[in-house]
Specification:
The chain is an alpha+beta fold. It is built from three helices and 13 strands.
Length: about 180
């Protein structure tokens, strides 16, 4: 059995879980998330824990068992604490400006500023001009939005300029060797 899949998911107080045929809805203080379950995988609530089960040891069911457990656990964590990804902007003249919680303007060395609108359920914070924080309750959306912002100007290997995750190490290459 999957080590990840068989671990029960604790449900904190203040969080309600609605289990309909083939879908899970988790509601908490931060908001509400819903997800369809893969066919064959079932989720049941036993007291204050959720248990994910699979019907048999078929390869497809084994693969989806741990995945479904992780997705539901991320939903529970998201509606209680939320998720955030921090991005650093490195480069002379590279900066971010906030235009409300749902839009940022990035100056990344292009001839024009780049405007990024947040998808539904995501907010942006710009504590300093070189730091952007992406927040939300859906882990998948937060990570994808941060990856989309990073993709606009990835860190380049010679000077390290660009948008990177906080704490990300960029491997630097040596420049041209002088003769």
């Amino acid at each position: 059995m999957s080590r990840v899949g068989r671990a029960p998911i604790p449900v904190p107080s203040g969080v309600t879980v609605a289990l309909e045929d083939g879908s899970v809805t988790v509601t908490g203080p931060q908001g509400s998330l819903a997800r369809r379950l893969p066919s064959g995988i079932s989720v049941s609530q036993e007291g204050d824990v959720l248990v994910v089960a699979r019907p048999d040891d078929e390869r497809q069911h084994r693969a989806l068992h741990g995945l479904t457990r992780s997705l539901v656990a991320n939903m529970v964590t998201g509606v209680t604490q939320g998720y955030s990804k921090e991005l650093e902007i490195v480069g002379v003249g590279y900066r971010a400006n906030a235009h409300g919680p749902a839009e940022i303007e990035l100056a990344l060395g292009f001839s024009h500023p780049v405007h990024v609108r947040a998808p539904e359920g995501i907010t942006f914070e710009v504590p300093t001009p070189t730091r952007v924080v992406v927040r939300g309750i859906d882990k998948e959306k937060v990570g994808q939005t941060a990856a989309d912002i990073r993709k606009i100007r990835k860190p380049e290997p010679y000077k390290g300029k660009g948008v990177r995750y906080a704490g990300e190490r960029v491997l630097r290459k040596a420049g041209k060797a002088a003769k």
